Sequence to fold (1447 residues):
Amino acid sequence: MSGTASPQGGLTRRSFLKTTAATAGVAAVAGGVVAPMTALAEGTAPVTSASGEEQVFRGVCRPNCFGFCHLNVHVHDGKVMKTTRAPYNESCYDRICQRGLSHVQRIYDPKRLQYPMRRAEGTERGAGQWERVTWDEALTEIAGKIKEIQGKYGESAVAFLTASGNQAAGITSAYSRIIALLNASNIGPCLDMGSYYGMYAVAGNYVSPLMGMMMWNGNEPTDAKNAKSIVVWGANITDAQIQNWHLIKEAKAAGVKLVVIDPIFTQIASQADKWIPIRPATDTLLKLALMRLVIEREAHDVSYLQQHTVAPYLVRSDTGKFLRRSDTGVAPTPTGQTDATTGQEIMLDPVMVLSGGAIVPETDASAPEIEGTADFEGVECRTAFDLLKDNIMEYTVEQVSELTEIPVAEIEELADIVIDGPVYHYEGYGPQAYNNGGQTTVAGLTLCALLGNLGKPGASYGAFWGIGLITNIAAAQYTAPKGPSTGFNIASVDLKNVVEQKKFQGKDADIKMLWMYSANPLNTHTDTHAWTDVIIPAMDYVVTADSALTDTAMYSDMVLPVAQWFELEEVANAGQCSSYNYNEKAIEPLYESKPDPEIVAELAEKLGLGEFFTQSTSEVLDSLFSGPIATAVGASMDNLRDKKQVRFIPGDAEKKPYIAYENGAFATPTGRFEFYRETPAPRTPTTKTPTPEQVAAERLPHFEPPLEAWPENPLYDKYPLVLMSERPRYRVHSQWFSTPLLREIDPEPIVKINPADAKARGIEDQSYVEAYNDRGTAVAKAIYSEAIRPGTLVYPKGWQLSQHKGGGWSNLSSTEFDVWIVNNNFMDVLCEIRPWDGKDN
Amino acid sequence: MTRYGFVIDSKSCISCHSCAVACKVENNLPDTIWWNRILTDGGPNMDTPAGTYPNLTIRNIPMACQHCDNPACVKVCPVGATYKDPETGVVRQDYDKCIGCRMCMSACPYTGVRSFNWEEPQYAIGQPMGSLDIPQHQKQVVEKCTMCWHRLAQGEKPACIDPCPARIRFWGDFDDPSSEVSQLIREREYQHLLPEQGTKPSVYYLV
Amino acid sequence: MTERTASAPKGGKGLTIGIGVCAVLAVIGVALWVVQLTGGMVQTAMRNLDSWGLYITMFMFFVGLSAGGLIISSVPKAFGIKGFGGVSKVAVMSSIAATVAAIGFVVVDLGQPLRVWELFAYSNLGSPLMWDIIVLATYLVLSCAYLWAQVQAERGKVSATALRVISVVALVCAILVHSVTAWIFGLQQSHEMWHTALLAPWFVSSALVCGTGLVLLVAIGLRRAGYLALEQAYLVKLAKLLGAFLVVDLYFFGCDLLTEAFPAAGGLAVVDMLVSGPLAPFFWGEVVLSVAAAVVCFVPSLRTSPLLALAGVAAILAILCKRVQLLVGGFQIPNIEWPAVMTPSTVTNWQGNLEQAYAGMVYWPAPIEWGVALGVVALAVLIFLLGLKFLPLKPADGE
Fold:
């Protein structure tokens, strides 16, 4: 019947729509009209009269879940009514999620901070007693404290700490500028850096011609459909990068096989053609076993290894360095090219390889041997490939099977799958959350390099997310008008050590004031007690700028209410479509809140630095996104305001997805894939120094047990459960923690436990339990779930301490860190669990 | 005629609750009220699988009013507050007429798709959200999915369709053979929920 | 009338106290109902997945009670056989009171009682609830008319034939009222437990059980109070009748259980729930009480007044147990038991998971429901007592 006119005046779809629209329009005025389609007029009065115009602004949701999703922010009478999905330039990226949809309740959350608050006089930090102050009082006090502390302890005693709570150009540059002007210290995040470390260690830091840097390089997810198989390593895509699920789903529908390797039966594991449950922290072993099978089956891509990896490079047994032409007495020759970062001329000193039994410069050998040993002036030199093989052959498949608890046949089958490329490997942040986590990426990439499974459509290892560098380049001057800060750069995971030792990198370091913004380290970093018991007590003054009373704000002396994302114009310069994302100001900042850049500017005024902050945020953005480079890559502010989304890496998501490491090019010192590294370096300097043994081991992919979560650890007898966490479905990190509607779905902290483990401990389903170890406790509701591997617990992250009936999850983790990766070991944690006795221990 | 309805490829649903949240916001649903919920066909708790580790299965089923062709609720309403719109097939609920007897809630076989405002509607954020065109929620009347009637009237899809990040929700006219939903149920196998109840739902779950 | 009141027997003082107590309880009930309406029905234990509770249980129960009296009273007249002594008018009075209670329970269950007028303005004649409302209202009017007719007949102002006609109509209506009430539940395909053709006749038999039980109890009580004189033979007759009804009701119960259980399919869950699940106390309560009452009714040596009174009480309680089983049982087994988000609106016990919400009885009344229910019952008793006090309900001479 549809589409045909009905003689009885029955309505076709089109006429129905027309009629109802008309009826609705009339009803609003006349208050009820008799019409064939009376439905909308039926007495039921709309909530608000639809008189005012609805305005729609472009917003960017930016909690750094990887997404940085574009949203429509619907505003009526100056109030946000809802957020909906906004179109991307490439429609395959159109997306929104449960959190992005609930912004209206986040913006108007009754628990949102409304005015500056000072810790009530005479109360302890963390006691939660506040007195309201004016902005003027707050900033005057803060400026006074900064001057006082810098005068007493030196400029570096004042430190700023941030994470990714509001990753955007205006905010970042405002803070960078004040930090540089104050010569303050910077406390850098150590959150999920294992994959980044592993990636740049062996494959380099890729910066695109459009000035985008891939923090976690890999082929664009739209390329997954070009693979034969997708292998997901510890990536809970269906919760953590929900926007990618439909691309995986579509690839699967097109016949691509989906394999998921995860200790937990996640939603994506449930969708997989093959789920391989694995013991936590053993992914590197599994990859070593796969490499062993590749080599045993002679499935490795010799040509790729010869041309694009350090496989043929000869390594000196005495120094561990590559044998170079200069070792033979030939001086490096000038190339006429200049290194952009150092300004020095690049000198050519090729590595020596074996060709036809002779040691020759790599430049002279078109097909150098990848296996072999040579004697150079009495020094044994072996190819890097041989050294790699030694490490690979260290574990038999049977041993790996025992340690990973994956049957040998499964490992063999997985080898069949990874050899039969192209394979799109997608690594998440699960495997890197242990002390040995950096190596999992090193091993994964090396496995792919062995197979030549990189740089081609469908062949990838990693994920896909990057940062646009335009502001870093164009704004170097803006962020440091009088030169970079002379303060310290301290890794947050090392801050406790610095505070205790009062030394950093051989210098006296006495951090006495912390200003924390876009971050909630007491909650989202490991070891809350390190903060509450060591770091915070060592501070003379603590400031937190946030829009909610987070754990970190609770322990502060002054809390400043900041404007939320849609209350200021910004450019979010990161995310998983590798674009600059333009965010319009949709509403005025609520209550007394102010945008971070304004707070910084007003503080600067009080510090006598007002002259450096005379521009509005929009003007700052205009100047940051200007100049020849910005214009050349399309990242001028005009273009951003117009297009809303501008890619900073090559390609087109739909027509020509970005391919990582295309043509075997790697941004490493040798330009090749460096599964062997001459000089491993820590990701960032810390109070620790690697030993020579650690240096030797770090040169090649290798397995080390995790610090804690390992059966040989004697602690296992006392604390037999590995405490794992998951990206919370109803928060991102700790944001949205009090959003009312999400709290209806997910009202309180839970811990998922295998029923067998629970019953053995007398724990009933849905009852309160206490997880504990020597560092601390957390009380949560136990949820029976067979998805949880026996011997492990899984908790969704991001609950504030005040939301727990006792303790908190980060109380149980430690600030121990790997000297190379300098990372929070979120899951390298053992604990035991018992029914809760009702007390807050 | 027109028979609007949904196709949900629940096979690929990941239980993210985006459709439920979109529904809640768009329709300014009071606290504790969810017209659209994601059910877990698995273990005893939401989002947990059936079976024993590692032999597990789980399926997620978004469920709201099924807008049945033969709705059990419509027959039993003593005052006609719930009725089937003859032109669109949408099962509608008139808050102003509802006497709050909850006969429809009892009669509907789809456990929990109808909800009652057991108290004066409460709003956590103290102000309306979502669409401006929705009827005011009332205390002690029965509510349910309206298929976003107010959006249909403006030629838009229901609010739960576009936000689905898994892209598994489809809406359209089953009486139009060229519609996407008609094509989908021609090409793919589907299930109805509780077909034995004879309600002829307008929600098709692809399998 | 006043004359009669003045000559009320010695029980007058007790009656007055009873009236006073009931009036107070009824007023408290109304006050609580106002509290329920203003503060919201959130104060009850009813929630989306158990959306009916004590009120609808009591509605079913009182519909049942109302029937018994009228049937007891009308059958003899309708069929022109010897009646059950002088209880006829009292029995009808009890019917009227119970009908008022039944209607009262529907009203207190409504979310929007001020919109009751819509029932007449926008009647959906297809709804079993609408049928019930019509039948109940008719029934109430008929009961009153029937009572009036009896009184008038005694005074010779209404012919026996007319009375007989009225009694036939009343009888048909009584049976209808039970059937229709049963159909409110029995026509819902969504609750396997309810969806059976047996439900209507079964409701009639249950109504006869508790109605007869009530009449028996009232008769014994009033005789003891000296309100009326009754020969023991009348009571024995009533008791035999009660015994027969109990057997029929148990027979229906057995039929239903067998039909549910035999295919060993979905219905088995219903039987399990009743026999050994959360509703077992009410199931076994009904069975034991019914059997005990039947034994008293059938064993001549046990038919003493106190035991017969107890049998009446047991029969009434047995049917109350049945009503609880039916109502809560209907919600106890959800069609879709897949877990989902639980909020305070979802189900009474919402804080665990769905399985836990259904582990015990899915519903148990909240204090306010007990209060309101007590008020409605008090109102019914009040009407009955007022009837006793002010209406000529004593047997006419010679009956």
Q: What stands out?
A: Chain C touches chain B through 54 residues (CB under 8 Å). The CA atoms of residues 188 and 210 of chain C lie 25 Å apart. Residues 1-10 of chain C have pLDDT under 50 and may be disordered.
